[in-house]
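REQUEST FORM: STRUCTURE PREDICTION
Request ID: SP-0412
Submitted by: Lab K.M.
Chain count: 1
Length (residues): 256
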Amino acid sequence: MLVKQIAVAISWGVAVSFALAAEHPARPPLRVYVTAAQVDAPRQADEATRNALKAKRDRTREARQALEKRLRGQFGKKREAWPADKGDELYQLEEAAALADADYEYRKIDPRGLADSAREVADSFEGKGSAGRKERVALVSSAAEADLVVEVEARRDGKTMPTQVRPDRCFVLFTVGAGGHMDPKQLTMVPADYRIKKLGLYAWKIANPKADDPVFYFESFNGGGNEFGCQGAAASAVSAAVDKFIEDNYQVLTAK
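STATUS: Completed
RESULT:
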């Protein structure tokens, strides 16, 4: 029900968003559908699961650190000078460690929070609040109509100081996958070492698409230090990250 409500809430912007295509005829915006992961009830890991997730996080983190230390000792500190297969080997462990960390950090999920963040992401694409309109994006009301599907998977928050009334550090875990108008194989054409680079944008890639999970995983952050609009700022970082992702990879995402 929550996902359906999100689709209704953002569908009003479809016509407005597509009007942007006329302003950039050589580079029309990509159609994007924003949704939330389908979680029927609040979910929180029990102690055994929590301990298992923590142990997995620690193991993968230690394995990554050990491999990086070994490769630096063999091939030097400059990673770009390493043999390609060795760089790929470390990258695979870095992804595994990032995913294990996300599994642990996002072990508590509230479906209403996901729905709220999805609405805020959609609003941010449309330029509501402090965020400017994202001209590379045209919102649509279903995955079937979309080139890309942005799905809010989880969100979390925390306080810099325990005496604070509200959290001032907010994060959103989200995925970017292919919609009905894009071949999922096109996402694999994005360079494996792609990183979002934009001054003032707090968002980073966690993992690339895989055969059994053909989506990019990203995490956004509000920047910290501000209790007011904490989750809204993290959602705005999602829309800015997707907009930058489209800008940087437009040619491969639209290749026919």
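NOTES: The chain has six helices and eight strands.
Reviewed by: T.R.
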